[in-house]
Amino acid sequence: MVKVQLQEGAWRRRLLGTVTSSAAFSLILQRPQEVSESMAAMLLVAGISVGVYVLVYYNFIRGKQCKSDTSLKGKTVIVTGGNTGIGKMTALDMAKRGARVILACRVQETAEAAAYDIRRISGNNEVLFMKLDLASLESVRAFCKNFLSSEPRLDILINNAGIEGTGKTKDGFNLMFGVNHLGHFLLTNLLVDRLKQCSPSRIVIVASEAYRKGKIDFKNLNPPADTWKQILLSYCDSKLANILFARVLSNMLQGTGVTCYAIHPGVVRTNLGRNFPVWLQVVLFPLAWLLIRTPTDGAQTSIYCAVQEGIEMYCGRYFSNCTVTEVKPHARDDAVAKKLWEVSEELTGFSAK
């Protein structure tokens, strides 16, 4: 009996589908002009929508493109976090220019896959992975020891890696302050002598417009990051630290032939929000694909500051959209910047003196 009912139900559905299809077909035959006009209107609206989106994206979202054709043959570049997103696209550009590219990453599997992709696309076989976990000062030191003993040159250091999430580093620091600032602070200082030896050379520090909401509270450099509000504020603090770091670093680099720049990549589709709740990722995904820059477009300012000729006079400055940009007063506070440097030396166990 059940089998008969199922068969009968299936037969009824097929009959209904046939009737519906026949009715639609009959409508097209009887009133083809109305149907064609409706379809034409829908296609017109769709075409206009796509056209408007393309215009908006290329004129307002995409941002400026680095047009420099500088060759990097014979040069060596380190890109932290070069396995995904902006970092991967930056590394790809460096490889296309002929550089030897080191992907300094935490996860070997994704980094090796990225290196393979970059070698295949660029035709440059000098792209390799070296282990670096910025959440561990011990790992930073091990990376630098390995690099300095195996690589004779360093011409461009791109401090690209960043994280936004909860937790602590292996040394007990707030995860974002530890990875986004302290890890790169130690890395840069351990490698700066090699950069000086290979000058003219450059350091690019990927910051963010999020610095606007940041503050440096020396009484609490390890704030809790348990709620999403706390996480976002800690991220803003770390990006402010990036800009202040570049400011002091530029003064220490005067006369060495090494220049440094802090940059804002724009709002980009990256893995930065990989620690967001699943529901938030689902909500943001459509917006990310429609209204946010691609990693290739987001990499342009990093690339610009790495290779563009004639910007040496802007050492220590902040770039956005391939253009030098003035920062808010709290990101120009030399007293705070100097104290942050001193505290960072103490926390990382490094002294530039």
TrEMBL record:
Q: Which GO terms describe its molecular function?
A: oxidoreductase activity
Has the keyword Oxidoreductase been applied to this entry?
A: yes
Q: Where are the transmembrane segments?
A: 40-60
Which InterPro entries does the record associate with it?
NAD(P)-bd_dom_sf (IPR036291), SDR_fam (IPR002347)
- Which Pfam families does the record cross-reference, listed alphabetically? adh_short
What are the entry keywords? Membrane, Oxidoreductase, Transmembrane, Transmembrane helix
Keyword Oxidoreductase (UniProt): yes
The lineage's top-level taxon is Eukaryota
Family to which this protein belongs: Belongs to the short-chain dehydrogenases/reductases (SDR) family.
PANTHER family from the entry? DEHYDROGENASE_REDUCTASE SDR FAMILY MEMBER 13, PHOSPHATIDYLINOSITOL-GLYCAN BIOSYNTHESIS CLASS F PROTEIN-RELATED
What name is this protein filed under? PHD finger protein 12
User: What would be the name of the gene that encodes this protein?
Assistant: PHF12
